[in-house]
Amino acid sequence: xxxDVVVVGGGPAGAIAAKYAAKNGASTLLIEEHAxxxxxxQCTGLISTAALxxxxxxxxxxxxxxxxxxxxYAPNCEELKVEGKDVKAYVIDRKIFDRALVESSxxxxxxxxxxxxxxxxxxxxxxxxxxxxKKEIQAGVxxxxxxxxxxxxxxxxxxxxxxxxxxIQFEAPYAAKDPEFVEIFTGNTIAPGFFAWAVPFxxxxxxxxxxxxxxxxxxxxxxxxxxxxxxxxRYRGSRTEHVLGGIPLGPPAKTTSNGVMLVGxxxxxxxPTSGGGIYMGAVCAKxxxxxxxxxxxxEAVLNDYEKRWRxxxxxxxxxGMRIHKSFGKLSDENLNEFISFMNNPKxxxxxxEYGDMDHPSVLLQKLIQSGDKKxxxxxxxxxxxxxx
Length: 388
Hints:
- 35% of the residues lie in helices and 27% in strands.
- By secondary structure, it is an alpha/beta fold.
- It folds into three domains: 182 residues, FAD/NAD(P)-binding domain (3-Layer(bba) Sandwich); 106 residues, D-Amino Acid Oxidase, Chain A, domain 2 (2-Layer Sandwich), CATH 3.30.9; 59 residues.
- Strand 1, helix 1 and strand 2 form a beta-alpha-beta unit.
- It is globular.
């Protein structure tokens, strides 16, 4: 087999990269190690309206619910209601969503192989095991969209992301206070360094958390979350779709090397404030696909991808990482103080007007312009983590 571009990984970033490589005239192959697209699911399935628009497949039958805001709970259980002017996010079925993205790439002209695992790369040839059989594929450019433990990145000698959070989630019957509002829970006793959530849909909710590396395992904190007064009053018992996963934060120093580029989770293109990767992954995947196609014809160099994706989302990632690091240093007392501060009607109005899941720097600027700068700087680490 001989292709201009081979994309490893059939998740959203991989599917979009394959689509854009094919659209730009490259013979393109998308390979996925699992037997089915969209499995296993390791995601809350909450995506912003901007992320859905960026994916270019419309609001299909994968949309389970629409979210207009969030209830944010301080460690002392004080509630902050954050409400947008319109729909801010969608709860989606990731299996159906991922399959729609792959179908879009196939419609654009890409080929696909399932049950095909990448095992190595040497001199423009990638080795795979496809349906139990060893094969070699000639590739002009290889795009690694193979997630947090990117085999492509390791084979190409590219560095790792700055930090990895560990997370856990399950689905269960849940009596949400308002089915159009996500519930966010802060505090070092249930999610040290990050936050916990309940994402409602159809009388159910995805209940989970992510936390800093080290300390106790995620299951330990999940049990604490289920005893939280708010969660305990709404959780109706039983668990399904129990998953463990990781969230990569902070891109490696380089995402290209010798005919290889990384995109999506493999490249750490994930919002450090929320752990969401679909919006940034989609933005970068389009660039990756286009540059890969042109590079296969010697019309571009891979470093063009590096420059363009960092120009597009690098600033937001850097600001988000600073916010994330600050947040990790806050005590529960700080969190209580901050959420109480955010309950000021003037501050809530600013959040409603300027809150954006994908561009927190805009809201940060408005908050700093409007209020007590010392208090905001002291507590900004949690400012955007508690939006959605």
